[in-house]
Task: inverse folding
């Protein structure tokens, strides 16, 4: 069975333990910037109901604040006229909404079959070690890196494959790891 | 046909329905007939033609063979039950279900999930350790109440129900209890039920709720002589098992130590306990000496039978038509307006129309708070796509869901409704066939409405003309538009006339006399309809029969064996006036707390204190009872038999569940004793006998008897014995032949003359947790939910007055001062205020005015110019 502790966002350090409910607080009320609000309003024109626009609106929230905090849930719920509990239910159903702050670079190692055969786990462990012995999902002290394991990134021909935020990186090995990390500013 | 374990049954509904019809036992954990089948729990697996399927979500098909028990199914259920038991400490019904099918433990290692507990709510307790993930909480919250408090978080093995951040009490829960009633596992439990777990439930009685005009059917569970807890009756067409925070939970008042348990008579200025004999003697002597200068105010909280007895006692026994009831202060205008326009002063349709209508038009009613079960049904209809038009000065819950919210200025009902009709005429949206066949006065009305184009009334109503036009078109284009209205229509200077305009709208488009249409007043109190039906209004005898009609007079004089008075009776406000002038000397008040609920309290107090003799029959020593010369301890609805008539004219049984406390007595019995003592003895031995006499005198009740009311009551008219009742009125013709389209000119309320530059318009009303004067709902957990009256004020109005959230404020009109705390909300428009009257210390009705409806004397509670200041 998938889910539970295997969820990438459950790996992120500081994420509430699975089963403890209610998102983490970011400490202050949030509101979309005028630009983000404009994008959300545009989104709403493309869906039959406000509820239908929930997933893309959460993406906007993640783009705006980097992760989905309790306050982000409240604001999205208010904008879409939904119950915050319902929004949180959706957030926690999917794996790619971050439920805790992440580093500037969210490094996602694929460990599915092709990458696994190309020693993705080894590279994943090495990467964490070089960034200061990070645990899975932990963020480096300078706040720049968070490293997690994910399911297939559909780049089996370029194993081991890595995605950093929304960008794909091909054939990351222990040998080119330093130059890969060095390239992330 | 299909066969279930060899028994042939009709192939209707789901396989589970078929199994149950065939009497086969199929275990379910996630099934509830009120929500869509989900197939989550898989316990209902059966074999259909040899294949295992979830019976709850599989349609029954012709010619199939269903087997509900086999080795494979037993093994499957066993395993499933054990898996559930690894994750949850199963309690309650679910435990019983599992045990009944042989699951008592688990062979697997326990793998408990992380848990959440909450005990902050006065009525609900949450302990997710018992949760079996049936999802009934999420589904009933969404599909029955439409509140979306419960949701699911996480996925896979970590999935769990949750209510968002914070404590449960701070969630948006409206405490309807639907999730508690549905939860099979004990994860969500009823605090009251848990508290009485040690006591053996001795009985279960079906009765009718006494909190509003919906008339929900209750299953009252008792332990000894107290209520253990209350469930909804699933088979009732009114509430289908659903209840609200009042009906389900606010029954603890019945055993509150404040209950009156002995008669009180004022001696040397103080009320002292006396025997029933002495009290009856004092009351009958008191009234006999003062007759006929005596009057009765009957109660819409009491039964039909009791209301009938009050009417009979005062008219027959003391020779006065001065008999009124609290319908006067709520829906008298609906009854009058609809009688003038349509011939019958009652809802033309049924609540069942809500699901049949293809448009709902809600006017001046905050249905989800004041009539929560009808509100939930309207909400569900709207969530399922039925267009909704709401006319209300406030952004109520339904208004926030509406396709069109016409947020009018208080007091502008008449111009707004005339404008809607004007659009129908101007844009040729009128159903000419219906209008020609069944109404009169169209040509005159069409001409009259030319002065009410929405562009002309915009300034008066504050509603943009384009929106009025849109709403009118929506209403006209619907095949089955259904109206419901509340006190926002009636409690105005032109209350009854406003209701006539609602009738105009329905008549113009032919939306009357068919299922899912009509004009439907949501009666405020549980038996407002019944109090009026039973003749507790000065101008009409039981059954809306005029004492001026010689045939009617002869009939009543024969049956009652008393002459009927010839002098016209007084309405309640006229009674107060007469009392102040010294013309009315004695008053009998049954179950009403007028000192808190009637407008312009100062003048009410003047009237009551001017009386020579005031008798109050009550369950608590209310603000009104404290002024009385005699206080008689009555019974609550839980403690007596009778009938209530709800807002859809449905006469339903009220049955005694517990005994009244101490020496308190059922009100019907007190009334019979009083009638005997005052020389008008009756032969009735029970409320059932009283109803038999009503059936003899009232044509619309001819076929009403207690056996005929089983099981779900009857909707009057019931013109003959064995008649099934009348869910929809005016299907073929109107009692007055043709319905009358009314030309109603706009006459601004005299209240507007009190407007000044710094006044705001106050609207008063109710909220969900409390009921009217709050004497019942304040004595229990509902007071924790809503502990005080708050004044809704727009943030802009608050800012200029330096008023902050929660600040104590003074609300002053020319009549007096109310003292609530402020709540800043954009749900009211700038210039408008809203205030409830549930707590006596707020003095809400000290500020309300003496302006009344032109036709019925119903007070204008919805329009009071006031000043608001910090205090």
Result:
């Amino acid at each position: 069975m998938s889910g539970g502790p295997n969820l990438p966002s459950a790996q992120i350090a500081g994420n509430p333990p699975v089963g403890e409910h209610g998102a983490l607080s970011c400490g202050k009320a949030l509101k979309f910037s005028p630009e983000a609000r404009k994008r959300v309003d545009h989104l709403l024109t493309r869906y039959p109901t406000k509820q239908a626009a929930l997933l893309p609106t959460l993406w906007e929230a993640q783009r705006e604040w980097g992760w989905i905090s309790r306050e982000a849930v409240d604001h999205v719920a208010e904008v879409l006229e939904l119950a915050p509990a319902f929004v949180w239910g959706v957030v926690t159903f999917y794996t790619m909404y971050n439920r805790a702050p992440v580093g500037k670079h969210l490094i996602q190692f694929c460990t599915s079959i092709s990458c696994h055969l190309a020693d993705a786990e080894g590279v994943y462990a090495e990467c964490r070690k070089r960034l200061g012995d990070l645990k899975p999902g932990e963020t480096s002290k300078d706040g720049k890196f968070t490293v997690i394991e994910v399911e297939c990134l559909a780049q089996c021909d370029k194993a081991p494959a890595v995605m950093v935020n929304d960008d794909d990186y091909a054939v990351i090995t222990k040998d080119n790891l330093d130059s890969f990390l060095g390239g992330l500013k | 046909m299909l066969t279930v374990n060899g028994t042939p049954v009709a192939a209707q509904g789901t396989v589970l329905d078929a199994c149950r019809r065939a009497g086969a036992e199929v275990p379910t954990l996630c099934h509830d007939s009120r929500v869509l089948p989900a197939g989550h729990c898989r316990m209902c697996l059966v074999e259909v033609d040899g294949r295992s399927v979830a019976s709850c979500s599989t349609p029954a098909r012709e010619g199939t063979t269903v087997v509900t028990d086999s080795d494979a199914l037993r093994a499957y259920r066993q395993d499933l039950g054990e898996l559930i038991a690894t994750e949850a400490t199963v309690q309650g019904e679910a435990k019983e279900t599992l045990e009944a099918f042989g699951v008592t433990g688990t062979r697997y290692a326990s793998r408990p999930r992380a848990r959440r507990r909450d005990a902050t709510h006065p009525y609900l307790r949450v302990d997710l350790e018992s949760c079996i993930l049936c999802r009934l909480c999420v589904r009933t919250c969404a599909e029955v109440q439409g509140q979306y408090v419960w949701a699911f978080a996480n996925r896979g093995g970590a999935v769990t129900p949750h209510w968002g951040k914070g404590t449960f009490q701070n969630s948006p829960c409206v405490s309807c209890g639907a999730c508690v009633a549905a939860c099979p596992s004990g994860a969500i439990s009823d605090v009251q039920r848990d508290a009485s777990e040690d006591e053996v439930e001795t009985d279960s009685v079906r009765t009718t709720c006494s909190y509003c005009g919906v008339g929900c059917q209750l299953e009252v569970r008792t332990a000894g002589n107290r209520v253990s807890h209350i469930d909804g009756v699933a088979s009732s067409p009114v509430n289908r098992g659903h209840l609200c925070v009042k009906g389900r939970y606010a029954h603890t008042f019945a055993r509150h130590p404040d209950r009156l348990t002995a008669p009180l008579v004022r001696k040397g200025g103080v009320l002292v306990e006396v025997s029933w004999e002495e009290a009856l003697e004092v009351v009958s002597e008191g009234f006999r000496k003062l007759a006929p200068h005596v009057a009765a105010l009957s109660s819409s909280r009491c039964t039909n039978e009791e209301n009938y007895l009050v009417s009979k006692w005062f008219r027959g026994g003391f020779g006065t038509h001065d008999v009124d009831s609290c319908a006067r202060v709520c829906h008298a205008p609906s009854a009058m307006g609809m009688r003038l326009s349509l011939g019958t002063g009652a809802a033309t349709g049924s609540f069942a129309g809500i699901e049949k209508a293809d448009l709902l038009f809600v006017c001046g009613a905050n249905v989800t708070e004041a009539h929560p079960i009808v509100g939930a049904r309207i909400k569900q209809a709207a969530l399922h796509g039925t267009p909704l038009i709401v006319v209300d000065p406030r952004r109520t819950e339904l208004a926030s869901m509406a396709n069109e919210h016409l947020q009018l200025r208080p007091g502008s009902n008449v111009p707004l409704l005339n404008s809607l009709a004007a659009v129908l005429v101007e844009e040729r949206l009128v159903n000419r066939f219906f209008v020609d066949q069944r109404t009169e006065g169209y040509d005159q009305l069409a001409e009259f409405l030319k002065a009410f184009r929405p562009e002309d009334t915009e300034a008066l109503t504050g509603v943009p003309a384009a929106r009025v036009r849109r709403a009118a078109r929506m209403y006209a284009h619907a095949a089955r538009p259904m109206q419901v209205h509340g006190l926002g229509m009636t409690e105005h200077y032109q209350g009854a006339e406003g209701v006539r305009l609602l009738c105009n709208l329905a008549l113009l488009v032919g939306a009357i006399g068919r299922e899912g249409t009509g004009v439907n007043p949501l009666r405020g109190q549980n038996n407002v309809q019944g109090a009026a039906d039973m003749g507790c209004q000065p101008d009409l005898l039981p059954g809306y029969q005029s004492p001026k009609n010689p045939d009617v007079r002869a009939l009543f004089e024969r049956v009652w064996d008393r002459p009927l008075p010839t002098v016209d009776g007084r309405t309640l406000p006229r009674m107060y006036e007469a009392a102040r002038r010294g013309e009315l000397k004695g008053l009998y008040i049954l179950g009403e707390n007028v000192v808190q609920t009637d407008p312009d309290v100062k003048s009410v107090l003047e009237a009551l204190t001017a009386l020579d003799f005031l008798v109050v029959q009550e369950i608590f020593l209310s603000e009104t009872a404290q002024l009385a010369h005699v206080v008689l301890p009555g019974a609550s609805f839980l403690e007596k038999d009778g009938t209530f008539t709800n807002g859809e004219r449905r006469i339903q049984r009220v049955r005694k569940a517990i005994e009244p406390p101490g020496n308190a007595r059922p009100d019907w019995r007190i009334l019979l004793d009083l009638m005997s003592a005052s020389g008008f003895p009756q032969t009735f031995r029970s409320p059932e006998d009283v109803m038999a006499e009503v059936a003899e005198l009232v044509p619309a009740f001819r076929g009403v008897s207690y056996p005929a009311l089983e099981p779900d009551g009857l909707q009057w008219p019931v013109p003959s014995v064995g008649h099934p009742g009348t869910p929809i009125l005016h299907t073929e013709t109107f009692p007055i032949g043709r319905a009358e389209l009314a030309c109603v000119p706009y006459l601004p309320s005299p209240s507007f003359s009190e407007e000044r530059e710094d006044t705001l318009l106050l609207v008063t009303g109710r909220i969900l947790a409390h009921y009217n004067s709050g004497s019942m709902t304040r004595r229990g957990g509902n007071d924790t939910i809503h502990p005080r009256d708050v004044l809704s004020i727009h943030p802009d109005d608050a800012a200029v007055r330096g008023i902050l959230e929660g600040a104590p404020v003074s609300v002053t009109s020319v009549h007096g001062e109310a003292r609530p705390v402020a709540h800043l909300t954009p749900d009211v428009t700038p210039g408008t205020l809203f205030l409830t009257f549930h707590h006596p210390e707020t003095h809400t009705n000290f500020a309300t005015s003496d302006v009344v409806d032109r036709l019925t004397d119903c007070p204008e509670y919805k329009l009071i110019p006031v000043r608001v200041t910090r205090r």
Observations:
- The interface with chain B takes residues 1-4, 7, 10, 17-23, 70, 73, 81-86, 88-89, 92-93 of chain A (CB under 8 Å).
- The CA atoms of residues 77 and 116 of chain A lie 39 Å apart.
